[in-house]
Design brief:
It contains 18 helices and 21 strands. With 478 residues, it is an alpha/beta fold. It has a 7-stranded mixed sheet with strand order 17-18-16-15-19-20-21, sandwiched between helices. The longest helix has 27 residues.
Length: 478
Amino acid sequence: MSGHVKSYAAVDLGASSGRVMVGRVGSDSLELTEAHRFVNRPVRLPEGLRWDILSLYGGVLDGLRAAGQVDSVGIDSWAVDYGLLDGDGRLLGNPVHYRDSRTEGVAEKVWATVPAPELYAATGLQYAPFNTLYQLVADRLTGAERLLLIPDLLTYWLTGEQGTELTNASTTQLIDPRTRGWSYDIAQRLGIDLELFAPLRQPGDPAGLLRPEVLEETGLAGPVLVTAVGSHDTASAVAAVPASGERFAYICTGTWSLAGLELDAPVLTEESRAANFTNELGLDGTVRYLRNIMGLWLLQECVRAWGDPDLGELLREAAEAPALRSVVDASDPVFLPPGRMPERIAEACRTSGQPAPVSPGEITRCILDSLALAHRRAVEEAQRLADHPVDVVHVVGGGTRNALLCQLTADACGLPVVAGPTEAAALGNVLVQARAHGLVGDLAGGRELLTRTQPLTRYEPRGDPGRWSEAQARLVRI
């Protein structure tokens, strides 16, 4: 390794697991190692589905202890969810899980005050039943003096300082993507008090120092800075897309697939709203113009229902199953809740007049074909709606390990797919910290470093693209 090397702890919390990674960054080097991984297991209480936030915080502390001495810590997580604090900064209850049912029917009440087209034109955010805005309208905020999004809540416990990081704030449906500030008009009309939120922070801003009690518990020698990163994990993952130039699409794969483009300005047209594209904020004034697709959640739920069979064997069976025999709409909200996923997929196929997959291999092939088809649709529509053509699709995140999904995505899109890095969110987290310390330059410089240092796999499109058009036609009106 050449030059000065610094170490950064990236706390990366996903919907099913959390991890603390250590990134060691020099002017020509970037190495990532896992210090600690822990389960993220939500709990169903009598009042509904809740995150076990204390267990997650314990996992973060264990991870920092395992990481050893670092120059900075950054936290990213899933979006939209939050903790409520009282006037003394005490948590009022376990944060509600975005899959909880309390927001059912809330959107219609919101739209009666602010019609959906108006809401989109002001905030650029796609409709999802769990957007923070709908959660707030559904929530009883009795005694709440402060709202902290999940990464900001954990940062507060580590440092004692409160802030609201911008990339995650942009998923609340309360940010104007043109001004990159709060949408006061929308909040006022819906009776949401923006004073609940701590002041906005930008990725790269200092977020405080680890408290003495945290230093004692983790064995770290202070002072250790906590740096605001792209605290929405997708913002961090997109920052770690190893692209050059602007003509690329990305798909961040995991429990969700987030497929879209990186733009300089939001797309706020009615056509964009009808296509359910979202405008979330990224690093350096960028906009993440993307669509949420159900992602590997479909397969994860099936694997759970089947008693956790060997994934490699399952994917081998899927590769041998007939291609595009049956497909489902991977963005259909019917697949959002957990439970009975294999039966629900088979049922969706029967309802649309297609053969119902029976064996685990057939169901897995149906899921992967359906995801590739959803990726194709999102990439094609994003290019058209934003008038932004692309030459390559970058796949990052957990789905990069699934070679069959990557190849099917290349086939479906008719474009080369470059897969990697797998730990994109953690790498993006690390790169923002390294930038704050002057080790990495702008976004392009960070991506160039990733391209030189991370393993990437290229998949060329193959087969008849017409078959994908035919499969898509089956879903057009089910």
